[in-house]
Amino acid sequence: MSRDSLTISEINRQIRNVIKDNFPRTVWVVAEISEMKTNYQGHCYLELVEKGKDDRLIAKAQGNIWAYTFRILKPYFETTTGMEFTSGIKVMVNVSVEFHELYGYSLNIKDIDPAYTLGDLALRRMEIIKRLQDDGIFDLNKELEFPLVLQRIAIISSGTAAGYGDFMNQLENNVPGYVFHTRLFPAIVQGDKAESSIIHALEEIFQQEDSFDCVVIIRGGGSQSDLSCFDSYLLASHVAQFPVPVLTGIGHEKDETITDLVAHTSLKTPTAVAEFIISRVESFDLILDEFRDRLTDKVNQLLSDRRQQLTWISNNFAPVIRTIVAENKSRLAVAAGKANYVVNTFLVSKYHTITGRSQKLSSLVSQQLTSGKYNCSNLQSGFSHAVKNYLKNKHYHQDLLEKKSEWLDPGKLLKKGYSITFHKGKILKSESDIGEDEVIETRLYKGRISSKTMKKTEIK
């Protein structure tokens, strides 16, 4: 082996010594956790990364938290921040820089500063809010007007979430007994898939937006880390630009998420959302009651005024009306007398006219009857003579037909010596209707003769 060559282990030991000399104490490091997993012994292994402004990866290192440290750091971080210690968050950790000849370079995490993570989240939150404001969409949903009554409600929630059950129980068992029409659009409301799941539900509702008065996004209680999906720009922009008023009841008491800020109305819990919707209907009900009372008072006042007017009219116009009625009764009596005289005179005149015409009509009818009777007698005599002649002619023709029938009777003709020849059941009339050597049958007055044709002769 050459004196100038080194083994890998020798190089690695030198690297380890250099690192140890340059990092004799622990240092604080800022990084983002891109991957995280724990093994069966409780040790936690991380991939820590650094990204540029364009979110491009520019550096990474392996990190580890030994089990005895991880059992303390994890609950400390989560209790302080209200977030889950998981991948995707930025952290400031105290590390010892180590290099092992076999396992290479790694950062051994000793401590963590939760305040840095909270500050980073606050910064990101401010950046997202500013971006929504710069895009001009931050207040769009808030500017939508509620319908007079919120009765058709689209719900985005997990069907098994306790918050959904609380919301429906509060809505369905309201004291006034109002009826609401609800439809659940199931979605995941916490975790990595929550953002895309809620956006998908919003898109489904958008396809039938005219069917709903409002959209309700609700979930049950949970840790602060469960709310991270509601602080995303993508979900907040969908809610801000949604064409139907959006109400949120995400179930947190401390801070509002960005989705809460852009929603039309934000309430703390699902139950509070249900109470708000019921109160809107109650307010409308009170307005209707007020209108009804006002209308009733107005109608009663109008009726009272009309009664007074009728009383005044009755008191002031009754004498005048009685005088007018009396005068008209007198006029009617005079008119009735005149009409009676005119009618009687007319009837007498018409009676005499009808009597004269009746006598003339009676004389005319008698004359017509006498003339008609004479004409009928003549007609009867002529008709009788014509019928007798007609019957006589018919009897004569009938006798001729009977005699002709007797003359044409085949039996009588056969008796006189005539005969009839048949061929194949048909009367044979011409020699052309039969060939030679064919059977023919001759019928006589007494009996029949069968024969064959020997020779045919045409007679012209």
Oligomer: single chain
Poorly predicted spans: none
Give the averaged pLDDT, no decimals: 83
Q: Outline the biggest β-sheet.
A: 5 strands, mixed, barrel
Strand order of the largest sheet: 1-2-3-5-4
Named at the architecture level, the CATH assignment of the domain at 137-283 is: 3-Layer(aba) Sandwich
- By DSSP (H or I, 4+ residues per run), the number of helices equals 9
Radius of gyration: 62 Å
Observed structural traits:
14 strands, flat, alpha/beta, 9 helices, Rossmann fold, five-stranded mixed β-barrel
Q: What do you see in this structure?
A:
The protein is an alpha/beta fold. Among the domains are: 8-130, Nucleic acid-binding proteins (OB fold (Dihydrolipoamide Acetyltransferase, E2P)); 137-283, Rossmann fold (3-Layer(aba) Sandwich), CATH 3.40.50.2300; 413-452, no CATH class. Helices cover 50% and strands 19% of the residues. It contains 9 helices and 14 strands. The protein has helices at 8-22, 67-81, 114-134, 162-172, 194-206, 233-240, 258-262, 270-407, 410-415; strands spanning 27-38, 44-51, 57-65, 90-100, 104-112, 152-157, 181-186, 214-218, 246-249, 265-267, 420-423, 426-427, 439-443, 448-452. The strands form 3 sheets. The protein has a 5-stranded mixed beta barrel. α2 crosses α3 (114-134) and α5 (194-206) packs parallel to α6 (233-240). 19% of the residues are buried.
Secondary structure elements and pairings:
Layout: H1 8-22, E1 27-38, E2 44-51, E3 57-65, H2 67-81, E4 90-100, E5 104-112, H3 114-134, E6 152-157, H4 162-172, E7 181-186, H5 194-206, E8 214-218, H6 233-240, E9 246-249, H7 258-262, E10 265-267, H8 270-407, H9 410-415, E11 420-423, E12 426-427, E13 439-443, E14 448-452
Parallel strand pairs: 3-5, 6-7, 6-8, 8-9, 9-10
Antiparallel strand pairs: 1-2, 1-4, 2-3, 4-5, 11-12, 11-13, 13-14
